[in-house]
Amino acid sequence: MKKSEIRFSIALDDNKVPEAISWSATDAGPDIHFAKAINIALWDREQVGTMKIDLWTKDMPVDEMKRFVVDNIGSMAENIVTATDDKEMAAKMRALCKELSEYLDKQEQGQ
């Protein structure tokens, strides 16, 4: 069986607020990659529930954080089709993404 590892490194300030997030993966080559935010969700088989880690750096602008959330919902819509073939649920999630994107576009135009 082939194994792959993903490693995250979080640099924290004195108040334990993330200043930098880096990651590497055995399947992504030897380079270290940097991110402004991560959102990890795991289905815990023992607790039969979702375990989450949400982190973002100090330099992550609010507008980018909102887009990050919308992108995550869009990714979950693709995931639900692939995993379950539930096209109706995916369509509803995509519709929400469209609505939220339009909302964010209006917010950005008002700035």
- Into which percentage range does the β-strand content fall? 25-35%
Helical percentage: 40-55%
Q: Average pLDDT across residues?
A: 95
Structural class: alpha+beta
Distance between the termini: 52 Å
Radius of gyration: 17 Å
Largest sheet: 3 strands, antiparallel
The outline comes out as globular
Going across the biggest sheet, name each strand in turn: 1-2-3
Number of strands: 5
Order of helices and strands: EEEEEHH
Low-confidence stretches: none
Number of helices: 2
Protein name: Gliding motility protein GldC
Pfam family, one: GldC-like
InterPro entries: Motility-assoc_prot_GldC
Describe this structure in words.
Pfam families: GldC-like. InterPro entries: Motility-assoc_prot_GldC. The model has no long low-confidence stretch (mean pLDDT 95). Strands 1-2-3 form a 3-stranded antiparallel β-sheet, with no helix packed on it. It has a two-stranded antiparallel ribbon with strand order 4-5. The protein has helices at residues 62-84, 87-109, and strands spanning 6-12, 18-25, 33-35, 37-44, 49-56. It is globular. With 111 residues, the protein is an alpha+beta fold. A hairpin with a 7-residue loop joins strand 2 (18-25) and strand 3 (33-35). The longest helix is centred in the middle third of the chain and has 23 residues, at 62-84.
